[in-house]
Amino acid sequence: xxxxxxxxxxxxxxxxxxxxxxxxxxxxxxxxxxxxxxxxxxxxxxxxxxxxxxxxxxxxxxxxxxxxxxxxxxxxxxxxxxxxxxxxxxxxxxxxxxxxxxxxxxxxxxxxxxxxxxxxxxxxxxxxxxxxxxxxxxxxxxxxxxxxxxxxxxxxxxxxxxxxxxxxxxxxxxxxxxxxxxxxxxxxxxxxxxxxxxxxxxxxxxxxxxxxxxxxxxxxxxxxxxxxxxxxxxxxxxxxxxxxxxxxxxxxxxxxxxxxxxxxxxxxxxxxxxxxxxxxxxxxxxxxxxxxxxxxxxxxxxxxxxxxxxxxxxxxxxxxxxxxxxxxxxxxxxxxxxxxxxxxxxxxxxxxxxxxxxxxxxxxxxxxxxxxxxxxxxxxxxxxxxxxxxxxxxxxxxxxxxxxxxxxxxxxxxxxxxxxxxxxxxxxxx
Length: 430
Prior knowledge:
The protein has helices spanning about 25-40, 75-80, 95-110, 125-135, 160-165, 180-185, 230-240, 245-255, 255-280, 295-305, 325-340, 355-365, 365-370, 375, 380-390, 410-430; strands spanning about 10-15, 20, 55, 65-70, 70, 90-95, 115-120, 145-150, 175-180, 200-205, 210-215, 220-225, 290, 310-315. By secondary structure, the chain is α/β, with parallel strands linked by helices.
């Protein structure tokens, strides 16, 4: 197994605004509709009409470009990093993403950070290549971890615990897992308190604390790109949502007999103990994959041939990405709610970079609306997307004014209270 030196903190980040594309809009919409219908039929809480790109789009349906309160998701995600202690940021994205980031940085500044941009490769849109493109712009030490982050996390503004985590010193890959119990500890007693609706397909048993966690895959990856093979990360990442991640890992390791032999005792323990131990917490439970947390650490460390660990967090912003129309509307409704309570400055009460984001909207968005087709009439555009995915309503029924769904009301009140408190605490620290 690889050895690593002692190094504290992460000061470099690859921020990805790149995403793969379907061959046609017809296929993309059919896939999104079919997934949502399966979730509805099975009674899932987190129904998602996915925002997907297609090669033949007249307007690139790239989720990172969508507007929340008139401001691109791109700007929220980049603003979060400008607030942090990061020193160097490499952005990977499309031509339109570059136009937005250039305008944003010219308006709000770089906050003293070294920021560069690399264009995505439309013929090779995958996680492996995105990491490769980002890494090409960084000078990294052999023991150095970087933060790899998708750009669809608009309110994940508190990341110092990731950048300064003590476990950076002893691991080459850290997965910050989304634990339902930690993010929403009262979700059983008060279902509305779970203001981010997701489906948790994984189970983690923590023997040291005698706890069962319902887990969703991470959205951020502190990783040592000098040691951890991005190819296996891409392979595991592509299988993370369908419960086949373990099978994918086993297939990969079969080509390496020495690692496979070391993995056998780990899998034997899993086969003998996991189901029976899980029943101590729940006699009946439907899930796609589960494992003892320590045993999972051992398995993945063997698979990757390096030190690896997982962490749980209590921050809903880490799971609240903009993958689907439902996710976009959660944030649009949240910003709308903040404006109703605090006027035009409402965003500053729920996002610590809110003042700069609003300044960018006023100063730079008028020009971007003449250059980026999606922004020329975004309300009409998003209404059309809703209709193409057979949603039951449209968000701008009057043409320009957002109309909040009644079903959002309680959930948005909880989200507003949570983000307001988090924002206030973080502003004091800054």
